Amino acid sequence: MDLGLKGKVALVAAASRGLGRAVAEELAAEGASLVLCARGAEALHETRDQIAVATGAPVVAVRADVTISSDMARVVATGQAQFGRIDILVTNAGGPPAGRIESLSHEEWEAATRLTLFSVIELTRHVLPGMKERQWGRILNITSISVKQPIENLVLSNSLRAGVTGFARTLANEVAGDGITVNNILPGYTRTERVQQLAGMMAEKEGITAADFAARWEREIPMKRLGEPREFAALAAFLVSERASYITGTSIQVDGGWIRSLF
User: Is pTM, for the whole model, over 0.90?
Assistant: First the structure.
């Protein structure tokens, strides 16, 4: 299937590893040019070089922190200067710290809000005018299965990713007439560094190994295994493609069946 991504320009945030990198690799393989950002310069530049060599895609890497508004403006401006436009935005950020309500400070809530919610809003604000002018755009937010089924001990993520969902659903209606789609993609338990860190943290509290804790997750998943980043990236590429032009305002999970609800 030709997704119609050849010649499109995609900005992927937090793209140096994990799900962000997997999505960037998939889009490059489909012929898109890339603007990548992440905080760690070394890992980011390594990712840029490896994707460019593997796919032949033009790739620009900009070291930036998604919690800093001026950094987000600079990433978008760099992409526009290099390629003339941003057609596709994939928002992404590392998950906020685990914890229960009584263990988290006011400062931790503020930091998590900047990371998880404001980063999405700021990136969207910067790319939207150009998308409206061209009457074509794709905005895809990487959130979490927690927006449909809250996860224990992740009150920051549960709360703020739900805020992203509300923002995206509202925006989808506002810009549908401009040829812009806005969707959310919800990763389940996927084999990434973030999930491995969570397993280690939870395991330590219970006095078991990280492998034992991860095995508990696998027992909860109907497919009885963790997902692979490339499986997640396949749906992401479709949702930002020309072929998905009539899909907007949705939140679709990639979770091996973990979420039990009907919707």
Answer: yes
Q: What is the DSSP string of the chain?
A: ---S-TT-EEEESS-SSHHHHHHHHHHHHTT-EEEEEES-HHHHHHHHHHHHHHH---EEEEE--TT-HHHHHHHHHHHHHHHS---EEEE--PPPPPB-GGG--HHHHHHHHIIIIIHHHHHHHHHHHHHHHHT-EEEEEE--GGGTS--TTBHHHHHHHHHHHHHHHHHHHHHGGGTEEEEEEEE-SBSSHHHHHHHHHHHHHHTS-HHHHHHHHHHHSTTSS-B-HHHHHHHHHHHTSGGGTT--S-EEEESTT---S--
| pLDDT, average across residues 191-201 | 78
The residue type at 206: E
pLDDT digits (tens, 9 = 90+) for 247-262: 999 999 999 999 988 8
Confidence band, pLDDT 50/70/90 cuts, at residue 95: confident
Q: How far is CA 201 from CA 81, 95, 187, 227, in A?
A: 42, 14, 19, 20
| Segment 24-38 mean pLDDT | 98
What is the model's pLDDT at position 259?
A: 94
